[in-house]
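Hello Y.,

Per our agreement to keep a running log of every chain we model this quarter, I'm adding this entry. I've kept the format consistent with earlier entries: sequence first, then predicted structure.
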Amino acid sequence: MSPGTFTISLDFELLWGIFDKIGTAYKPSYFLNTRQIVPIMLEKFTTANIQATWATVGMLFAENEEEWRAYSPEFLPSYRDRKYSAYEWVKKNGIRPEVHFAPDLIQQIIDTPGQELGSHSFAHYYTLMRGQSPEQFREDLKATQKISQDKFGKKLESLVFPRNHINELYLGICVEEGYNYVRGNPKNWFWQETQHENLSKKIFRSADCFFQVGAKTSYPLDEVKIFEDEPVIIPASRILRPQQQSNFIMNKSRMLRIKSEMEHAAKNNEVYHLWWHPHNFGANPESSLAELDELITHFSQLQAEYGFQSKNMRRVGQQIKEMAVTV
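Predicted structure for the entry above:
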């Protein structure tokens, strides 16, 4: 039996990931901190031999607005509610290079051992929003692969659906466009159909960060099934939520929850898949990085005691393929 596996996936998006929520109402220091944090994270991962998948919005690959326009697909998402379109947002607000482009950081990710460059779609594409179509989604994925291969010589294999909106009808398109591995949602009911939010789901998701209200979210590798003409779905286990400023008890509780789940996975030879957004560290960079150090130290202890190993999404997916039976 193979030892337990610690998997990290990061939704790297800068403003492209939250423009529809905050518009232009953000502190410049928030994303400046994020840009400074990425190299620090990479250094910490290198020191501890931790692998991670950086699911990166394709628009971040561009150097400038001219290049961004050149790689944008011809068929844009026709959301019924136009506020969800990155292209419509740019028409109204313009491009801001410091929050919209990051080729320098992408190169650092590529250059760091064990780090996988993945995709978060080209335009932070919402596959479950009304109005968009399968062909528009395909064009978005094509744009991401093209800019990645043209600029960095990288064919992307792992995909994270923005906002965890997983449209099962689109999974075949993912494989056809080169994405063999996709992050799935935790199996608890309050993580399903994330496009249909309600108060009870939010309450249960928040509560589950501090104490167990749903089923455990780590899992054995052989529990993951492979379906013909679909990518391997690698379920997430837990989101590392942003710190609650000046709330020591809540911050400590959520860290103890994650560390306890990591230990359970290590002891029982299971996969524990932690994810977050790098910009989640932007408000409180120093204390957030201190928490990351705490998690890395805990991983190293579990590695020494139980053989807990670190693998990015691609490597986990490859291992699942090797041992799974297609159904």
